Automatic annotation (TrEMBL), chains A, B:
Taxonomic source organism: Paenibacillus rhizosphaerae
Residue ranges of the annotated DNA-binding region, renumbered to this chain: 32-51
Protein name in the entry: AcrR family transcriptional regulator
Upper taxonomic lineage: Bacteria, Bacillati, Bacillota, Bacilli, Bacillales
InterPro entries on file: DNA-bd_HTH_TetR-type_CS, Homeodomain-like_sf, HTH_TetR, Tet_transcr_reg_TetR-rel_C_sf, TetR_C
Superkingdom of source: Bacteria
PROSITE patterns according to UniProt: HTH_TETR_1, HTH_TETR_2
Amino acid sequence: MSKSGRPREFKDTTVIDAAMEVFWSQGYEACSTDDLCKETGLGRGSLYNAFGSKHELYEQALIRYHQVGIEAQLDILHNDAPVKERLRELLEWEIWKNSAAKDRGCLIINASAERGKSDPAVEKIFKQHLALLEQAIEDAIREGQSAGEISRERETSELAAMFLSCYYGLRVIYPGTMNRALARRIIDGTLAAML
Amino acid sequence: MSKSGRPREFKDTTVIDAAMEVFWSQGYEACSTDDLCKETGLGRGSLYNAFGSKHELYEQALIRYHQVGIEAQLDILHNDAPVKERLRELLEWEIWKNSAAKDRGCLIINASAERGKSDPAVEKIFKQHLALLEQAIEDAIREGQSAGEISRERETSELAAMFLSCYYGLRVIYPGTMNRALARRIIDGTLAAML
DNA sequence: ATAATTTTGTACTGTTTGTTACAAAATCGA
DNA sequence: TCGATTTTGTAACAAACAGTACAAAATTAT
């Protein structure tokens, strides 16, 4: 393993996190490589040497956002609280808790809306994120049905799909309006719909 | 009223429709004024003389999309079919019927995701569109409750909020994945949730 | 006809874009 | 200490950007 050469003056993950913030706040097209240099603290030389291009850095930022986010959401869904409380916590997570997210929405959803049709990397991450979430929600709901917390008369996969869609809708509607009362109604209405 | 001068060689609405297509397919930042000239058929002179700036044309396109879209959706909700069928039709509208929309999603949602935090015009239209839709959905659900089609035990506004969120979620998830089976589950699950 | 007015097409403006070139700086193995 | 190797900062790049200037063209009113 080669070891020579001048050592890097930064940690990759900190730079990716900083870049993530920029893409999250401005979107892909609206942010310039200058913005990225300023916010990451790197010069153009370092940035291009380490990441290759604006788009590759974008991909890394999306992947990191996906990984961190999925872990947090699965943690909530794998709680030991009653299933319905876990589901409520999930709905409330990005809205009240995660102050980084609440007014800018979900980076992956934003990315899909801005570039989903033309950027295969975005499409892939969006699908992956969604599929993992759907599976975990379905598992939780099945558990809730077994425990008698959630209606047994409706199909698990249908309940999961409905909940997932409400969740994604909320993550578009709340950042778009910042209407807390509406968000409250959505959350309560969604949970009530599980019986 | 003044009437002199060389007459315009285009109809405003046709140009706005063409511009709408461009913004819809590419997003605001990703499309150039050159793209707009090409797709509308106007030269730069005409375009800037008639619309002032890229952003003003964008606003007009959003407003037009909003008006046309709201009308179509309210038409569905004011049907004479049973309420549940109207709601199903609404959910299915952009997904199966409206071939212009199905793979690129809703322009207003996309605009909100791309520019909602930094563009007051986008924010305003998003809120307006959503509020009109929410009201119409709530009215329809109340009607359904009176007719005994929809559960009377749940609050109308909560049911409406839940439905609205499912609807918006679907309009993000389907274009992002093009997964028909999942869309089917979301639609069926959402309608089943109204009892 | 001609003056007034508006639209149209084209050439042009100064910036900003993403990316590259490259020399100086900092490390390692010899 | 001396190459070898990698990172860093700066300068530069052509292309693309949104917007403007302006003269030619097309109309109406007189």
